[in-house]
Amino acid sequence: xxxxxxxxxxxxxxxxxxxxxAQFLQHMKKYYAECQYAKETSTKEPSIxxxxxxxxxxxxxxxxxxxxxxxxxxxxEMTSDGIExxxxxxxxxxxxxxxxxxxxxxxxxxxAFLRRIQKEKKQLYTKYKCAELYMNSDTYEELxxxxxxxxxxxxxxxxxxxxxxxxxxxxxxSVKQKRIRKKVGLEKFCIEEGDDE
Length: 197
Prior knowledge:
mainly alpha; 6 helices; 60% helix; elongated
């Protein structure tokens, strides 16, 4: 006997986006028109609509939970920076040029996150460098050879690695910028040290 196979009715649920881009665009068009009118009539700038604010906050929160940002201890500061930058550059969105406000604000928030990460790394570098200078000072040597500033040799080693990597990255970035920098005027014809003739 053959078994009867039945087809299962499988409903594929369409994935709902957390932001309706078409509706977001309509609100941005309205805001853009109000800004243009205020500019032409030299009146007070319009306030930002609640829907737009909600969308920006949702984008920032969702992006901060993405795998490459979720584990940072300063996630709230990143989110705040992203929202602040969106509000700073909201007037630059032109619905005549772009029909995707979601992508525009996501990109602004993404780069705000990267800037916050760099700021925090710089602060951590400063903190570790100060601790390293303290470890090399006379006061630290009076405490004895077995004293660790962060409680263990493992933490001291990580601290030193972080400082070395940060300094190495800064040095590489400055060398790269020097190479990229465009020469203008007579500088094109000057030969710098290290250049091949």
